[in-house]
Each structure stands twice: as C-alpha cells, then as structure tokens.
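This part of the workshop introduces the protein records we will be handling. An example says more than a description, so a record of this kind follows:
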Amino acid sequence: MANIPTIDTVKLTAKGLRLLAKVQSGATMYFVRAAIGDGFMQDGQDVADLTEMVHEVPSHQTGTTATSATVDLTKAVVEKDGTVSVRVKIKNGDTAFYMRELGIIAKDPDEGEILYAYINFGDGASAMPAFDGSTYIVRNIQMSFIVSNAANVEANITLAAEVSYDDFMAHKNANVLDHPDGCVTSEKLANGSVTGTKLAGSVVTLDKLNNDVHSQFDGLEKAIQKINSTKKIDLEYSISQGSSGYNIVVKPKVNYIARKEVSGTATYPTQSYDKCYMYICYGYDSGNIFLICGTTVSGRGPQPPDNYILSAEISSSSDCGDFEYHRLIQKDDNGDIVAVM
C-alpha cells in the first residue's frame, strides 16, 4: 500500500472561503466527499476561481455499486491550530488515470455542494493503472487545511473502520487516556459507563471540567482559598455529576456556624458547634447556575438572593429556620465569583 505524506499546501476556493465565514458565524461544516481528477491547471489560473475540478475522474464511495475508482473519506479531525486533517483513500477501478487533482466537496447551507478545498499535483501526479482483476492499487492521502478551531465539523465518513499503521502505533504507544482533546464525547460513552468507582480520588477538578463549566465557576477556588486564609472559617468543595449537569457543593469542613452578636456583627467561631449550618450546592445545567440551599438538619433550606452565592449565617433556632444570610462568596458586576470579607 503506497502512501503520500500529509499535504498542507491545500488551498480554499472562493466559495470555500465564503463557507468558512458562515461556519465561523455558527454554520456547520459538512464534508460530503472527496473528488479526484487528472486535469492540468492553466498558467495563471487561481485555485480561488475554481468552482469544480478541472477534469474530474468518475468515482464512487464504498457501499455504492460501481466499477469506477473508489474514493472514501476515512477521517476528519479538527486540530488545535484551527486546521482540519482529512484522510482520503483512493482505490483504482476499471479505467487507468493520473491522480493529479484532489478536491474536498462540502455542503454550503445556501448553495448546496461546493468545491471547498483543492490541490493539483501537476507533473507530480501518481499513475493509477486499471484494476487487473486481482490486485488493487491504493493511495492514502492526508490533507490539512483551515476551518477554524471553533468550527462544528462533520463529515460523510464512508470507510470509518479504516485504521492506518501510524494511527494504530500512536494509540498502542499512548499513555493512559492520552487522547486528543475532544475525542471522547458523551455520544461515545454508553449510559452508566463512567461510574464513581472508575474515577480516582480528586480526579475531577475545576481545571478538568469542560471549558463551559469551568468558565461558569472561574474564580471559585481562589475565593475559597482567600476565605480560608483568614482562619475565620474553613471551607471545602466537592464536584460531582448530577442527573442533568455538574454539582459543586461548598460547605464548612466542620459544623461551623456564623452567629450574629448583639452588635449585629457576624463572627465565625473557631470551634465546632453541634448546631445546624447552611451550605450552597452549585448546579450547572444547560448553561445555567442554580443554587440549592441545604442544612445539616432539614436538608433543604430557603433560597438566598441570586447574588448570595455562599452564605454561612444561621439563627440558633433548633429547626434551622430563620436564616440570616451573610455573603462569603458572590458574583461581581462582571459575573465573576469573588470572595467577600
């Protein structure tokens, strides 16, 4: 099996650039297929002006009955630098040709199928003889071209089970869970496949949560550290995944309570009290933060105002009623979580 190295000189057509702008505005990039051809570009001809292959060679995809060359997309992965790596497998058919042109056909939401990216090998074309009835000639080509690292990219992978030797060796020699960012998604995990027993202690931290969750709680850990540095109260937090999102529970390490003295000043005793205290559970669900107020006795407590992210003040009532909130952590005007002392 002959292989052509990764090609990073692929250019976008004008229609491809217009589609890229739409994708950067939220449209989905969908690669339909790869196209092959044997045509030469004219002197001075620009790839940007192409709307189709110079001379496309008939081809079909795996799963379609035909005798022409077989051309499949086997891989499409968005890299961190905003490029996409697309692997194409070409197998000869009943007609000989020179594999001089290679293009990627994408679906534009307004124009339908367009020639998105293109390269012409010119005099460096590979000869593809006709199938002799016993041995196929195969070319594996990996192309790299720009899409945007924030792009939603999908592809019509018609030979998904194809694994290259390089892919196999990279996976075989990889460290535990050393996989590309974003390659393990919720769609690839069976229900119940990730359990508490499969996660080591403290393996889930704020830094390891996905970016959208992390941004919601950015500053929480620093705020807790700032409060703890005063030695007035010792807070801790834990992270778990609930039925519809992530939960972050912040509470005192021991049963500290905040009392209100006659003067009205909130104080934080340094010893543990056998009385109820209140804590807040952060919840993350579809982009929203919700607060759950709980106590050591009655479980669910009253909801504090929205900007009272964590309160630790309670009356001495035996049934944990009549909460009086004192803000420890709150959101500032920018929506960031900060300590309030």
About this structure: The two ends are 68 Å apart (CA to CA). The chain has two domains: 2-172, 204-339. The longest strand covers residues 28-37. The CA atoms of residues 177 and 184 lie 10 Å apart.
